[in-house]
């Protein structure tokens, strides 16, 4: 039977101390009932309550922390739904760029510099590579330890250590004491040694097997030895079987409460063809992967995958909006052009970027359309010429410029006459239909 918030609350100390990160014990209890927190996240829970409630209240998918504690680390797992429309996905996956063992020390350092710089801004949010996957297969134990230690000292992101050799992994994990890299990967052939290494180093461990049954057995063996931060690893080049197994594992954990598979997944999609690698990574970003190991580090390959992740891990129940207000782009003057657009984030940031690219300082009046783009807002009656005029008045735009020229989106030409007839803006210019046409329009048309 599912736990209710009240059942959880009865087992809590009811002090409302806030040490769990929530203002009241009831708020914390509701998070536990929703499988977003475990009972053991309450630091003042009695031993009796822990034994009675901790297993029943634990999220169906384990939250796994990779890297140092705090903001420097990366978290995956603790998902609660099979499909985004049921609620939302919570923990976006990390791209882990592979640093091959065959690279020289200088080449590996250069690769890491590229990883460190792989951060981009899209629709007002920073997106980028989340992990560096350092391969040490074929290196001697001391060489492996030296490489991971040197790279960790310069890395912006946590590390994944890649080898199936127990001696090499032990040396690498020892060199990263306290940094909690993800150890990739334990298989039925090396599981005993790798589980011991992960337990001693207190590191998260990736598990791999050719069937889900064997994978569940490995997870049970690791948990028995005290290793609970586990990740289920799959071969992304075998697309059909990997998608099937990840989906079955997630369904077993979320719908059937099958704890042996209640861990986040990771997929190795590293292939030589950049286009194929991009497609594979995007596929598994959409199908439940928490970590994606890739070879490519070029922005042309990374951005499509990062954009896919960003789109999928937005909350479908909350419009992606910006604040409806007047924005100043560049060093505006009283002669700068005035444009308006909607408060859908993608629309606004597309317009803003193109205005910046034009090198023409401008004002952008953002009208509240409840997060809809231009055409959708018009079709849904969320924008009108009257609303545009009222927004311009409320933002006192007329007091900031000497002219009375207004540039409107090319998709709303019908607004022109009404705005000119009902407002001080007596010269309405119909702009381009797409944001990409804004630079040429401003340079050629604005006087």
Gist of the model:
The chain has 447 residues and is an alpha/beta fold. It folds into three domains: 53 residues, Electron transport complex subunit B, putative Fe-S cluster (3-methyladenine DNA Glycosylase II, Chain A, domain 3), CATH 1.10.15; 250 residues, Dihydropteroate synthase-like (TIM Barrel, Alpha-Beta Barrel), CATH 3.20.20; 120 residues, Rossmann fold.
Structure commentary:
- This protein has 447 residues and is α/β, with parallel strands linked by helices.
- It folds into three domains: 53 residues, 3-methyladenine DNA Glycosylase II, Chain A, domain 3 (Orthogonal Bundle), CATH 1.10.15.40; 250 residues, Dihydropteroate synthase-like (TIM Barrel), CATH 3.20.20.20; 120 residues, Rossmann fold.
- Helices cover 40% and strands 17% of the residues.
- The protein has 16 helices and 17 strands.
- The strands form five sheets. The protein has an eight-stranded parallel beta barrel, surrounded by six helices. Strands 13-15-14 form a three-stranded mixed beta sheet, sandwiched between helices. Strands 1-2 form a two-stranded antiparallel ribbon.
- α15 links the parallel β16 and β17.
- The longest helix is centred in the middle third of the chain and has 18 residues.
- It starts with a helix and ends with a helix.
């Amino acid at each position: 039977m599912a736990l209710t918030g009240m059942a959880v609350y009865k087992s809590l100390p009811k002090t409302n101390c806030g040490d769990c990160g929530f203002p009241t014990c009831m708020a914390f209890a509701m998070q536990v009932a929703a499988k977003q927190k475990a009972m053991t996240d309450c630091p003042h829970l009695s031993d009796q309550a822990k034994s009675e409630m901790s297993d029943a209240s634990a999220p169906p998918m384990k939250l796994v922390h990779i890297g140092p504690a705090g903001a420097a680390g990366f978290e995956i797992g603790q998902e609660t739904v099979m499909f985004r429309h049921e609620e939302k996905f919570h923990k976006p996956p990390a791209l882990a760029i592979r640093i091959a063992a065959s690279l020289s020390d200088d080449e590996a350092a250069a690769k890491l510099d590229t990883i460190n710089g792989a951060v981009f801004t899209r629709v007002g949010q920073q997106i980028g590579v989340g992990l560096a996957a350092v391969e040490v297969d074929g290196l001697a134990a001391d060489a492996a330890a030296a490489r991971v230690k040197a790279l960790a000292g310069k890395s912006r992101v946590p590390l994944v250590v890649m080898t199936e050799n127990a001696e090499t992994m032990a040396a690498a994990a020892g060199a990263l004491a306290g940094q909690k890299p993800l150890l990739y990967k334990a298989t039925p052939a090396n599981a005993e040694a790798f589980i011991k290494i992960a337990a001693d180093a207190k590191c998260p461990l990736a598990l791999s097997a050719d069937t889900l049954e064997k994978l569940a057995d490995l997870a049970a063996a690791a948990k028995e030895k005290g290793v609970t931060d586990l990740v289920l690893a799959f071969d992304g080049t075998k697309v059909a079987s990997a998608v099937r197994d990840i989906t079955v594992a997630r369904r077993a954990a979320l719908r059937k409460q099958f704890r042996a598979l209640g861990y986040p997944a990771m997929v190795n999609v590293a292939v030589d063809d950049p286009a194929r690698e991009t497609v594979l990574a995007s596929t598994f970003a959409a199908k439940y992967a928490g970590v994606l190991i890739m070879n490519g580090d070029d922005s042309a390959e990374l951005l499509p995958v990062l954009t896919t992740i960003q789109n999928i891990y937005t909350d479908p129940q909350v419009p992606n909006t910006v604040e409806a207000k007047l924005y100043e782009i560049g060093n505006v003057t009283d002669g700068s052009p005035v444009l308006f657009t909607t408060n859908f984030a993608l629309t606004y940031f597309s317009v803003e970027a193109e205005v910046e690219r034009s090198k023409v300082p401008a004002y952008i009046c953002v009208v509240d359309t409840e997060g809809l783009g231009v055409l959708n807002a018009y079709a849904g009656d969320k924008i009108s010429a009257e609303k545009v005029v009222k927004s311009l008045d409320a933002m006192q735009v007329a007091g900031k410029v000497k002219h009375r020229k207004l540039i409107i989106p090319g998709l709303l030409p019908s607004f022109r006459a009404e705005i000119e007839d009902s407002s001080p803006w007596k010269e309405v210019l119909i702009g381009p239909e797409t944001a990409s046409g804004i630079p040429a329009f401003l340079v050629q048309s604005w006087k």
